[in-house]
Amino acid sequence: MDYSRLEKGIMDFIQEEQVKLGYRKEKIRLYYPLSSLKHFLGEEVSGKSTEELEKEFYEAAGIRLGRVEISRNKDRFCFVVPEEGAEYVHEKRSGNSFIKKLVALLQTHPCTIEDIHKLFLETGEKIHFEKIETEDFDYLIYFESGEDSYYYCFKVEGCHIIYHRFMPEDYQDLFSESVE
Predict the structure, then answer these.
(1) Residue range 49-54: mean pLDDT, rounded
(2) Between the CA of residue 158 and those of 46, 90, 109, 119, what are the distances in Å?
(3) pLDDT beyond 80 at 180
(4) What angle do CA 126, 102, 139 make, to 5 degrees?
(5) Distances (CA, A) of 56 to 1, 7, 61, 89, 158
(6) pLDDT in tens, 75-93
(7) If residue 78 lies in a helix (H) or strand (E), which one and from where to where?
(8) Which of 68, 109, 125, 143 has the smallest number of Cβ neighbours within 10 A?
(9) pTM (2 decimals)?
(10) 134 dihedral zone (left: phi>0; alpha: psi -120 to 50; beta)
């Protein structure tokens, strides 16, 4: 099983958390539903024990993230990334990144969806920008190619804007009725 996409997803989430909250050398708990793990790893993940997942993930990513503990409660998985994993992400991925610019922009007032759209365009990448009709979000923006494959969903809430980013497959699962 290829664990590279899961490893990247975990590191992306840790980086985003560190940009938002600051870096601390501490354990980080990440929770994934089985459906997300299937998107990362494929259908075969359903039949694996947490012990098998831990062993295989350590063989794939242990040199970078350390010994990640994995537990499961029904269809919900908890990944506990040790302190050295948080430190690795801080040291190796704390450069000037898009997520850092996005979080900084969202912390300014006033921040508009036009400002966010402009930030995406400034990357020089081709983007998809659309007004969406969901209860939770107003806009969907994503890069049509490149390393950042997340779907960024934005909600305008009065004088500020919140966002959440999804793997494309998770977005499809959650909002399939509102997707063409």
Answers:
(1) 94
(2) 42, 33, 11, 21
(3) no
(4) 65
(5) 8, 12, 9, 20, 46
(6) 999 999 999 999 999 999 8
(7) strand 76-81
(8) 109
(9) 0.91
(10) beta
